[in-house]
Amino acid sequence: MNDSRPFGDFAPSGITRWVIDRTRGLPEGWAGRRVALMLRHLAMKMLNGLPLDLETFGVRMRLYPYKNVCERRILFTPQYFDADELKILTDRIRPGFTFIDVGSNVGWYALFLAQEAGTAVATRILAVEPQPEIFDRLIYNIRQNPSSTIKAVDCAVADKTGELTLFLDPRNRGEASLKIVNSSQTDAIRVPAVTLIELLNREGLAHVDAIKLDVEGAEDLVLDPFFRDAPAALYPALFIVANVPERWQIDVIGLLTSKGYRQALETKMNLVFERP
């Protein structure tokens, strides 16, 4: 259940505040991550199901860390959360920068980049999220950062337009996919969906600088029709895709390479491709 009370009503205090401060200050490396995990377990046992309001790298967010891995990572260890990927994106910010966050979850990528760009640089950011409950959290977080240039879009991005089934993992609300999720307990809802090219056309985009595509194994369903139908002028200069090749039914890496992309980075979570 989401709560729309004013930001700050759920500010952490006491031992919870202490743990968050400690975990956020830990360095990179195995030892730091291990200590962060132990402290996080301690704090999670003490929380009572309520959200927490925090500012993270200048971004104000209300976080529900209980059944969403993404929100737990932002809450306790944002310094570890896709730091290399965000650095690559931040380095590309310039006037007119356009970023599409497909599978935005509660908006971390979109909000971080909007904060980095500030008000002096005109940017356009789309945050696309199909889950109604998570979308409501995304909207709330955007509203707490009124200087941002983010537009939230409540739909899935898929291989066809229409109403499709979205599979959910009740243990991790961030893991939603148009393919069956890796869980013995799976929920399903019907959501509106569009293709990536249709999304860009609806938004009137003539160019895109970067797209982050994290749709829990359905990246192949999105990219195959996009590269079949989209003009080269709409190919983004940068693609970040979830690193889950075992779930793809086509060779996504080969597809991107055939379209002129080169792999610039591989992390545990993501693959980053650049196109000159």
Automatic annotation (TrEMBL):
Residues 101-223 form the Methyltransferase FkbM domain. InterPro entries: FkbM_mtfrase, SAM-dependent_MTase, SAM-dependent_MTases_sf. One of its GO terms (biological process) is methylation. Signal peptide: none annotated. Keywords: Methyltransferase, Transferase. Gene3D superfamilies: Vaccinia Virus protein VP39. Pfam families: Methyltransf_21 (PF05050). Coiled coil: none annotated. GO terms for molecular function: methyltransferase activity. NCBIfam families: fkbM_fam. This is FkbM family methyltransferase. It comes from Microvirga ossetica.
